[in-house]
Recover the amino acids of this structure.
């Protein structure tokens, strides 16, 4: 009985000790407080409403300003290719050759006709020299009354006929030379060269293929000079003028871009109710065929714009750091609209006069004190 009482007394003492230690720990948790993080160097800006450009977006494709689409001018068979897609070629570079037997035969026949016409001119000149010499002798004899008038007139006629024969031979030679030039030009069409310096973007033939006049062969595009061709809605017709500066966005090209309207096609497509606007580009890293968007201004409206650097994007969520009167930063979700230059429109989530962090955003954490 005494042993059991001693055991109970020991357990009671141990429980009291544990309770005392537990109370001491909770007291420390209640009294201990962590100081908030202090952020220095952050840039704050008060937001407010203002005029926001009202934009109409048009999409299109980047194309080379100068492009040469080469086609066959004569029928023939492709015998050799000297360039492929992606190759950079200089002006005058041989791209491919054709075999055209009929054209080659025509050129050879034209050259032979020139040689024959040259011989005809030589013969006509010889006959004229003989006729001139004979006429001079008979003229002297006629003056001395050693020949009759009829004989003299016959030699005069022979001289005139020889002169006419020479003129006709020279005309035939000129005609033969023109024919040879034309035939030579046709024969030259068997060698297809690049009319501009650029890059080969398309090749539609291979060795052994037979082509006919008008068959596409290759496309060469000039590098460094590009345009964005967009299909603008009919509502903008008459409002877009050459020389206008238009904000652009090009896939794969970082940063805001600006294009200048170079051409406006006046006709409207009846199917899509759009018209083509061509904008000159000056950005680097462009290539033909990439997607682009142009934003045409049609007025303005009341809205709120904040610097793009103030936005914190995490997945599909967009937020900003809002700094209260106590200089404590809190993250707040916002709904962003379209981007205008270096700023983005905020549709909801902010009120006039609130301060947000626009610089040093990466330093800020929730609950941090901004100095």
């Amino acid at each position: 009985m005494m042993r059991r009482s001693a055991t109970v007394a020991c357990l009671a003492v141990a429980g009291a000790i544990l309770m005392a230690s537990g109370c001491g720990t909770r007291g420390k948790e209640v009294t201990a407080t962590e100081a908030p993080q202090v952020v220095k160097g952050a840039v704050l800006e008060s937001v407010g409403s203002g005029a926001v450009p009202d934009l109409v977006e048009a999409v299109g494709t980047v194309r080379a300003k100068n492009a040469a689409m080469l086609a066959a001018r004569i029928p023939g068979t492709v015998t050799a290719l000297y360039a492929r897609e992606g190759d950079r070629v200089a002006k005058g570079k041989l791209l491919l050759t054709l075999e055209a037997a009929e054209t080659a035969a025509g050129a050879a026949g034209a050259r032979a006709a020139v040689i024959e016409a040259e011989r005809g001119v030589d013969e006509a000149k010889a006959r004229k020299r003989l006729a001139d010499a004979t006429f001079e002798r008979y003229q002297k004899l006629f003056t001395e009354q050693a020949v009759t008038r009829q004989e003299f007139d016959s030699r005069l006629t022979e001289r005139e006929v020889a002169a006419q024969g020479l003129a006709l031979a020279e005309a035939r030679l000129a005609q033969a030379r023109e024919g040879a030039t034309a035939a030579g030009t046709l024969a030259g069409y068997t060698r297809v060269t690049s009319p501009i310096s650029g890059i080969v973007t398309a090749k539609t033939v291979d060795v052994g293929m037979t082509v006919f006049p008008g068959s596409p062969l290759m496309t060469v595009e000039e590098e460094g000079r590009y345009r964005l061709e967009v299909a603008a809605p009919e509502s903008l017709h008459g409002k877009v003028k050459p020389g206008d500066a238009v904000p652009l966005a090009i896939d794969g090209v970082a940063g805001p871009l600006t294009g200048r309207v170079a051409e406006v096609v006046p006709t409207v497509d009846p199917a899509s109710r759009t018209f083509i606007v061509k904008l000159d580009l000056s950005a680097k890293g462009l290539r033909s065929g990439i997607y682009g968007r142009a934003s045409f201004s049609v007025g303005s409206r009341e809205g709120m714009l904040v610097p793009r650097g103030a936005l914190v994007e995490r997945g599909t969520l967009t937020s900003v750091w809002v700094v209260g009167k106590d200089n404590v930063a809190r993250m707040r979700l916002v709904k962003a609209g379209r981007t205008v230059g270096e700023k983005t429109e905020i549709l909801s989530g902010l009120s006039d006069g609130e301060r947000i962090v626009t610089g040093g955003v990466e330093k800020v954490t929730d609950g941090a004190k901004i100095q």
